Amino acid sequence: MTTTARPAIDQAHWQQRLDELARAHQVPGATLAVLRLGVDGTEDELVEAATGVLNTATGVEATTDSVFQIGSISKVWTATLVMQLVDEGKLQLDAPLAEVLPDLQLGDADVAAKVTMRHLLTHTSGIDGDIFTDTGRGDDVLEKYVAALADAPQNHPLGATFSYCNSGYSLAGRVVEVLTGQSWDATLRERVIEPLGLTHTSTLPEEAILHRAAVGHVKAGPDEELQPTTTWLLPRSLGPAGLINATARDVTAFARMHLRDGLGPDDGVVLSAASTAQMQQLQTELPDTYSLGDSWGLGWIRFDWHGERLYGHDGTTIGQNAFLRVLPAQGLAVALLTNGGHPRDLFSDLYGEVFAELAGVTVAEQLEPPAPAPDVDIARYVGTYERSSITTEVFERDGRLVMRVIPTGSIAESTGATVQELELHPVEQGLFATRAPGEETWMAAVFYSLPDGAEYLHYGVRAQPRKA
């Protein structure tokens, strides 16, 4: 960590920038926390800011002690629980999960016999990742959820590629329950939330309502106004994959533990230094190195920003988005929590400024289509690509490649997601850039084949197999 003298973080400046950028990107409410570890015996710095409202229907103001849904940032918390069990010798990352869950059944019996915890934490199991089965509100939700995975489609062969997998983290949460003898929620509270002194972090709606809780905002259509969502939370069965509620401050406190080699606020060991390091190390490469990071650790996403190594995670629930980036070389962690609008554009602009001004680090450039457009063979990609919650039709229109994204299943109903048509702008053969109407940030769409010849479209960090 650098020990160069540095000016204090200017809270007023970052409050102003959060206000301005949230308005510019139509984000109803947001909170920001910037944590920088002290050096040479100095105290840590923590700067917080909040802007807008938690709910446009009620006008309740967003404050720094407001709780938002951090979505899939929760996965790193679940991975932390898993690594605690590894530290205690209760679990091995590369042992078949069937040793802990002998009754495990999946759509592919061979995968059920061979899948490991490392596959789950690195999103390489191939289990269809967006299965949002609602198994109720009781403490047995994960047990029931895992039982329902008996019919889960296999998206790709075990370990063959990366595809973002919520289902795998709910399965990991069930392993945690079996090994600890209590619910994932209770285990997280006992092993992470309380040791870190996180007073505004919870996993259940009856806990979140005790605080100022944000409501997500969505649009019924591209030309409609943002409205508060009528469904506040995803099913409890998705807890280990994305149901933590927290303040931005608490999110950076969790990151602080990882920055300090697993030590809590009283220097107590929450996670071993070896496991903390292993979570940040390269575990698997990504087919798409543009949309999020360039690779994955155990839970953490890894980012290369012009030679600077960061780790972090994003989170998306129903109308809420969260972002966490950690720069270990400078002891810097930044959390942004939002509740609608164009949050990724806000994140892109704000984090670009924060890391440039506080750390002298330039955010990696986003993918953009070159001009003039390269000459690529687009006909080879025409077809239908499908996974459990999305059908993607890729077709030609006026000499251009277009993909029609069709949400399906229960998640489409709960989020109000609608069909989108997105033009695919060629970057090079097999790589295209696209973005939703009104968005400034480009995302990648990658067409590729596995060694066995199976063809896939990688979009939204998920592998979608091409239908025959």
Automatic annotation (TrEMBL):
Pfam families: Beta-lactamase
Domain Beta-lactamase-related: 15-348
Superkingdom: Bacteria
Matching InterPro entries: AmpC-like (IPR050491), Beta-lactam-related (IPR001466), Beta-lactam/transpept-like (IPR012338)
Signal sequence extent: none
Protein name: CubicO group peptidase (Beta-lactamase class C family)
Species per Swiss-Prot/TrEMBL record: Modestobacter versicolor
